[in-house]
């Protein structure tokens, strides 16, 4: 079997077009423009690229975009003061603090300072709790993107056996809650899971989010399973330079799986598309307007 490639880049374009259409409707019918503020502290090169892409995509969708680029030496107090200002800014409906933050800043404290209604990353403890209890929440962008691709591929997910490898707050745990809400039978596996390959072999859906290059091999995969690769690992090429690989041994797993997301071009582009989706959703909820269809969990 050779797997169907789930093209995240193409699907992200569809999501972005839906967002743009909803933004245009908000302007036409309600004279409302969604606004997103992205905050970057320090000069991590990858984070700088992601923040630039987010700003560009926000503007292209017709939304207001503000970027705050702060020096690496910015104090926790200064960052918290900026968040308080953004919380009170009526033209801003989404606030995102790019992670990771420098070590001298307490990430949990910063995330807790963002008003939950504007928490387009879905990392605030209120949104975490709402999602965990199956209620309407702001949902983290990467798992939301994975869910959208799975829904597009399967239609309904009810009754499917899903294994999420990785228990991070950003991907693994919210992904598991989203799949549970879709009535999947969900297992969260991690570095201490016994007989991990056997556990993964049970799955109709495998979500790999461990951050270890090509860890998931073909013999772990049930023939025909759907494999969603969240990993973004930069590795050295033998001939020099680097390349991106996921957490899945793509060339071999693609011979066994029924469907698979590539890296690059799979989950990554969906993360930014879902940030736009969350910003328009947050704006609609704040203004008590109808939410966009097909852009929420
Ligand atoms: N506050 C947040 N910080 C971080 C998040 C997040 O969701 N919220 N996620 C990641 C980084 N990230 C977005 O911020 C992100 C990572 C990767 C991609 C992407 O499109 N990747 C491409 C490859 C890009 C390349 O060539 O380097 C792909 O997979 O095709 C988008 C967004 C950590 N921080």
From TrEMBL:
Residues annotated as binding NADP(+): 166-168, 232
Domain Tetrahydrofolate dehydrogenase/cyclohydrolase NAD(P)-binding: 140-284
Biological or metabolic pathway of the protein: One-carbon metabolism; tetrahydrofolate interconversion
GO cellular component: cytosol
Keyword terms of this UniProt record: Amino-acid biosynthesis, Histidine biosynthesis, Hydrolase, Methionine biosynthesis, Multifunctional enzyme, NADP, One-carbon metabolism, Oxidoreductase, Purine biosynthesis
EC number: 1.5.1.5, 3.5.4.9
GO biological process: L-histidine biosynthetic process; methionine biosynthetic process; purine nucleotide biosynthetic process; tetrahydrofolate interconversion
Reaction catalysis annotation: (6R)-5,10-methenyltetrahydrofolate + H2O = (6R)-10-formyltetrahydrofolate + H(+); (6R)-5,10-methylene-5,6,7,8-tetrahydrofolate + NADP(+) = (6R)-5,10-methenyltetrahydrofolate + NADPH
InterPro entries attached to this UniProt entry: Aminoacid_DH-like_N_sf (IPR046346), NAD(P)-bd_dom_sf (IPR036291), THF_DH/CycHdrlase (IPR000672), THF_DH/CycHdrlase_cat_dom (IPR020630), THF_DH/CycHdrlase_CS (IPR020867), THF_DH/CycHdrlase_NAD-bd_dom (IPR020631)
Domain Tetrahydrofolate dehydrogenase/cyclohydrolase catalytic stretches: 6-121
Record NCBIfam families: PRK10792.1, PRK14186.1, PRK14188.1
Family (UniProt): Belongs to the tetrahydrofolate dehydrogenase/cyclohydrolase family.
Function comment: Catalyzes the oxidation of 5,10-methylenetetrahydrofolate to 5,10-methenyltetrahydrofolate and then the hydrolysis of 5,10-methenyltetrahydrofolate to 10-formyltetrahydrofolate.
Protein name (record): Bifunctional protein FolD
């Amino acid at each position: 079997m050779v797997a169907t490639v789930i093209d995240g880049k193409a699907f992200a374009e569809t999501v972005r077009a839906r967002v743009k259409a909803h933004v245009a409707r908000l302007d036409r019918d309600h004279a409302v423009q969604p606004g997103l503020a992205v905050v970057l502290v320090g000069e991590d090169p990858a984070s700088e690229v992601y923040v630039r892409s987010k700003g560009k995509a926000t503007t292209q969708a017709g939304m207001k975009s503000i970027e705050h680029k702060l020096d690496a030496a910015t104090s926790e107090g200064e960052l918290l003061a900026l968040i308080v200002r953004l919380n009170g800014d009526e033209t801003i409906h989404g606030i995102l603090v790019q992670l990771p933050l420098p070590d001298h800043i307490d990430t949990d404290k910063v995330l807790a300072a963002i008003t939950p209604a504007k928490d387009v990353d879905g990392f605030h403890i209120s949104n975490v709790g709402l999602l965990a209890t199956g209620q309407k929440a702001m949902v983290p962008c990467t798992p939301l993107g994975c869910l959208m691709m799975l829904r597009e591929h399967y239609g309904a997910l009810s009754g499917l056996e899903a294994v999420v490898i990785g228990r991070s707050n950003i991907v693994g745990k919210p992904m598991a809650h989203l799949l549970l809400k879709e009535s999947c039978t969900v297992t969260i596996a991690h570095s201490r899971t016994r007989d991990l390959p056997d556990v993964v072999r049970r799955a109709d859906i495998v979500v790999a989010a461990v951050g270890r290059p090509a860890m998931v091999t073909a013999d772990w995969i049930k023939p025909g399973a759907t494999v969603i690769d969240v990993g973004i690992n930069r590795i050295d090429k033998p001939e020099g330079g680097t390349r991106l690989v996921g957490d899945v041994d793509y060339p071999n797993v693609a011979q066994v799986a029924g469907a698979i997301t590539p890296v690059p071009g799979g989950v990554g582009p969906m993360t930014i598309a879902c940030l736009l989706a969350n910003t328009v959703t947050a704006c609609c909820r704040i203004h008590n307007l109808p939410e966009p269809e097909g852009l929420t969990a």
